[in-house]
Amino acid sequence: MNLPDFIQRFVHYLKVERNYSPHTIRAYLTDLNEFKKFLEKRTIKSLKEVGSEVIRDYIIFLMQSQTPSTVNRKLSTIRSFFKFLNKKGLISGHPALSIFGPKQGQTIPHFLTINETFRLIDAAKGGDVIALRDRAILEVLYAAGLRVSELVRLNLEDIDIGQGILFVYGKGKKERIAFLGEKAKEALRSYLEKRGKLLKKTRQNALFLNHLGGRLSTRSIARIIKKYSLRCGLMEKVSPHTIRHTFATHLLNQGADLRMVQELLGHASLATTQRYTHLTLRGLKDVYNRAHPRR
Fold it and tell me: What's the whole-number mean pLDDT along residues 130-151?
């Protein structure tokens, strides 16, 4: 069995056994195909020839042109690949196990202030179906802290406006419950009253529709947010993930428990959520410096 065959078996495993999303599988496949090209340039055709030295050389090669976070992500893909092959008995040993990627600094997520968030949402105004849809999208993203992929996957049966609940399918198709505040519920009701105007002849179960009556894409959501961020004067780049960061930061700043925010975000690891504590600690320090009599 040659390298492409091993890669295809790994992709099948990610799809069938791990239940990964098509987007995640494409990312793994892209990383592995880049690694394959590197091996081909070194005339390596068999995995038996791939030892720790070869993988280490590949990491050094990547570090010449790519950021530490990108290099570490690609190394993670290679580790997962060889772990799968070893587990299935297709190879002996794990040549990537002892390889470490470059150190990277802690990235602080970009977020909006409360005032900026309200300005962004209020920029979507008007009574036509597109304006109502866009307002509902912004309200739901901020109310529930969804990933953009989770937002576009929402169907009509996934929402219970009366209870203020969303049934969300996150990474690895894991299901969780998200919540809606009164503003988000009100925006959704207004949109749903006119949603039928976007429907064409075919029935569409997606919650958020484009002008052709189909499901909105992640790119379309990004364009919608960019449109309203420019309209309200937010010149810095605002993305769907910025709103997710904003959701988490505002909850923690208002005293929410870190583990509760972890559950709401759908993070598998608490360490991922802890990135936001840098922001909240900064705010606490400012309060301390202003308030303590012997600071």
Answer: 95
